[in-house]
Amino acid sequence: MPANQLIELFLDTVWVEEGLSNNTLSAYRSDLTIFNHWLAGRSILEVDNALLSEFMANRYKVGVSTRTSARILSSLRRFYGYCLRENLLVHDPTSIIVSPHIGRPLPTSLSEEHVERLLSAPEITHPLGYRDKTMLEMLYATGMRVSELVNLKFEQISFRQGVVRIVGKGNKERLIPVGEEAMSWLEGYVNQARKSLLGTRQSDYLFVTNRSDSMTRQTFWHIIKRYAKKAGISQTLSPHTLRHAFATHLLNHGADLRVVQLLLGHADLSTTQIYTHIATQRLQELHAKYHPRG
Length: 294
Description:
Elements: H1 3-18, H2 22-39, H3 49-61, H4 66-85, H5 112-119, H6 127-142, H7 146-150, E1 157-158, E2 163-167, E3 173-177, H8 180-198, H9 217-230, H10 241-252, H11 257-264, H12 269-272, H13 274-290
Helix pairs in contact: 1-2, 2-4, 6-8, 6-10, 10-13
């Protein structure tokens, strides 16, 4: 079987079995295609440890970052693990390859004061500003991903119970309480601004543009940056800044780590634990500032 067909068969299999996102599948396809091209006609099923080590060294020489190199090796491990399971080879060439060590960067978060300034930035007298205000309130109240927010549909909201049903990575569902403040803004948006934006048109999406379309993740990212500038927030932000603030502020106020894990939709608790470093850092700063012997 040609390598490109084998790669596509692998991608189809992991998509069916694990429901991986399109971004993950695209990364796998890109990494495996680059590797197959580098092999220059050599069989992808006849690779040994030495050849794979040579490939990884080549990635370093051409300036690939440590994080990208680690992702490429992870893609190769998944692919060759699949090939072993399907009895297409008897030896895993990735078995003795050591993954590049990458430090886990602390996520960009905001102080509670900065969050308040950001949430107050939209001009709520205009339907678009009211929509933006509601979206920011929802992000901070629920900790959902921006991609999850812009794809929200009416059927995912329970106004009576005050919860939102999120379909996250791997098609895993989780229920998140919205909170009175955000729910109040959401109800106002649905009853006022959304009707104004839609006019006589219809949409299944909760948050719509003035053309009645759903919003893209990139568009809302530009909206966040615009309001951050208006609020005088100079620090570097990311699309998940309010998600990070949601987790950090919960922990700062005593929330249990496993509760935060469930709300964020993390499969592994270790992914959530990075926020404890931010919370601890903040506690140390407060101690140093206010304790008489700090």
